[in-house]
Write a structure and sequence with these properties.
Elements (H helix, E strand, L loop, with lengths): L5 E7 L8 E3 L1 E4 L12 E4 L30 E5 L4 E6 L3 E5 L4 H11 L10 E5 L14 E5 H11 L12 E4 L13 E4 L2 E10 L6 E2 L4 E2 L3 H9 L3 E10 L1 E4 L4 E3 L1
């Protein structure tokens, strides 16, 4: 460890693959994902289900950064209590909406169309399943990542990497690069919550995109493979004991 480890950032993505936002704190519930993270997702025309989805569905049914790089440049600001989200993109501008509202769902789809490749199945409808985050796995995972790992990968690539290209939830400071892999099977106390680290996260080409410009600017996957022999970055964890976490909280490895 390089310093007393702490929680440096909390990031959520209210609409899957469409906007990231940093928050100062959150209340975690046992067996649930980060609140308001991937609460909604936008299905495309080739989705294997109709509107009115009632259960988790695989990621290939939805708009994602790996298929539409410009989505990576969307930032978000949300009002969880009001269930409203404001999205911003350097080319598309800003849109404020309530993703549960049918009219606003259509406004969102219209706003996304110019950002989505015309060669891909078009944005079609918005889904939301109460109690089920539309993450890449059906499990109630939170992703846990290390600032030192991001900095070391950036050093090897000769560039500064934004944390937002990884679409992570909890960013830890004060660990050695890639020390989070050694936490698999361990329990972490952050604030008053306890998480169990479950498995590594294998990455896709969406992480090659600069989340400021929405353009590919460096091959993170090639760099991971060349330097470490894999394309894993970060780990998944589940909430074992509920509690409140906040930016700056001490990390205790149990």
């Amino acid at each position: 460890m390089t310093a007393e480890p702490r929680l440096a950032a909390i990031v959520r993505h209210p609409i899957k693959s469409i906007g990231h936002e940093e928050i100062i704190g959150a209340s975690l519930t046992k067996g649930r994902a980060l609140p308001f993270d991937r609460e909604w997702a936008v299905a495309h025309e080739a989705a294997k289900f109709a509107p009115g989805l009632t259960e988790w569905a695989a990621k290939m049914n939805f708009l994602r950064g790996v298929a539409g790089a410009e989505l990576m440049a969307i930032s978000a600001a949300s009002d969880e209590a009001a269930r409203r989200v404001t999205l911003r993109h350097p080319r598309a501008g800003e849109i404020a909406l309530a993703p549960d509202d049918a009219a606003d769902q259509q406004r969102l789809i219209d706003w996304l169309r110019p950002l989505w490749p015309a060669s891909r199945p078009a944005p079609a409808f918005v889904v939301q399943v109460p109690g089920q985050a539309m993450t890449d796995w059906p499990n109630p995972f939170l992703s846990v990542l290390g600032l030192a790992s991001n900095a070391e990968l950036g050093r090897r690539m000769g560039k500064t990497l934004s944390i937002h290209r990884w679409r992570g939830n909890l960013w830890l400071d004060g660990l050695e690069p890639f020390a989070e892999f050694g936490l698999i099977g361990r329990r972490l106390r952050i604030g008053s919550a306890v998480l169990k680290v479950e498995q590594k996260i294998t990455r896709c080409r969406a992480t090659c995109v600069d989340p400021v410009t929405g353009q590919e600017d460096g091959d993170t996957l090639a760099a991971l493979n060349a330097n470490w022999g894999h394309q894993d970055f970060g780990v998944y964890a589940t909430v074992e004991e509920p509690g409140r976490i906040a930016r700056g909280d001490k990390l205790e490895i149990l």
